[in-house]
Specification:
299 residues, Chitinase A, domain 3, 2 domains, 4-stranded antiparallel β-sheet, 11 helices, 6 strands, 13% strand
């Protein structure tokens, strides 16, 4: 039974698993405090335990929180077994040698990735340039709307206004007529009050929302809104149960001070993508034996 417990413990240390974060926390002990002394005299400080804790799988973190004494006794057993393996030079024998080297590659490659992700910091002038180049990402449009609903069923029901529901064709024709009236100089708010079936925006003179490119809205609405110029009105935008007529009341851009955090993250990700592409392009691997790749020799 004890060997099974040890196996579960060691797998938890070495394998990253999807698990909820551990309940509870480590004790509030100064980092320099010695918290364990193993039988070979090696001391373990609180700071060292925290460092190990940070790279452990969630189930091992939970084990430390649940029973620190039992965990460190198991840790001591692992250290002793590893020492025996090294004395017998098992770290130089297959398949242990290959497993150690493979895991070394994984750890160091991830370390290189993390270093590139977290240490690259753009200069202020680069941030300003990136903001100006990508300003459309931070565009925001205050929108008014008229909504004309329709029914795809046989039109016999009454809408919320007490009038028969329109067919899709009738609703589209009405929406097109309203667009022509607005573009001809008609008062948009007046048309909202007389025609819109969207009660919430109708009560606010057609005020629909202030939209941003990152908002989770239908693509058709997003495309229509961000193609508009100030005070312009869209063609009817079809949605599952109605047509929207959208008017750009105010177009502005979120200031750099407001978006700096998101912008820096975007710059880091873009820098990392380019860095990784350059690395991939620099890799050169030769395959001298064509049978290995299951292909005929190049002529």
């Amino acid at each position: 039974m004890k060997s099974l417990a040890l196996l579960a413990f060691s797998c938890g240390v070495l394998a990253a698993q999807v698990a909820p974060p551990p309940e509870g926390t480590l004790p509030n002990v100064p980092d320099q405090t010695v918290i364990a002394v193993f039988d070979d005299g090696t001391k373990l400080t609180m700071g060292e335990l925290k460092a190990y804790y940070g790279v452990m799988a969630p189930n091992s973190q939970q084990a430390i929180v649940r029973d620190r004494k039992a965990f460190l006794e198991q840790w001591g057993l692992l250290r002793k077994l590893a020492g025996i393996a090294e004395q017998k030079k098992l770290d130089q024998a297959s398949p242990n040698k290959e497993a150690l080297e493979y895991n070394r590659l994984l750890v160091l490659s991830q370390a290189a990735v993390n270093d590139e992700l977290f240490t690259s910091a753009p200069q202020p002038q680069e941030v300003d340039k990136y903001y100006e180049t990508n300003k459309e990402r931070y565009k925001q449009v205050k929108v008014k709307a008229i909504y004309i609903t329709f029914s795809k069923e046989a039109v016999s029901k009454l809408g919320s206004n007490g009038k028969p529901l329109l067919t899709e064709e009738e609703a589209k024709a009405k929406a097109q007529k309203l667009v022509a009236e607005v573009r001809g100089g008609a008062d948009f708010v007046k048309l909202v009050k007389e025609n819109s079936d969207d009660t919430a925006s109708k009560e606010k003179d057609g005020d629909f929302a202030t939209l941003r490119p990152t908002d989770n809205i239908p693509d058709a609405i997003k495309s229509a809104v961000f193609a508009l110029k100030q005070s312009a009105v869209s063609d009817p935008v079809e949605q599952p149960n109605g047509f929207y007529i959208l008017r750009a009341e105010e177009i502005s851009y979120r200031p750099l001070t407001e978006v700096r955090g998101d912008l820096l993250e975007s710059m880091k990700q873009e820098h990392f993508r380019q860095w990784m592409e350059q690395l991939r392009d620099s890799v050169r691997v030769q395959f001298p034996n064509p049978e290995f790749l299951n292909s005929a020799p190049a002529k």
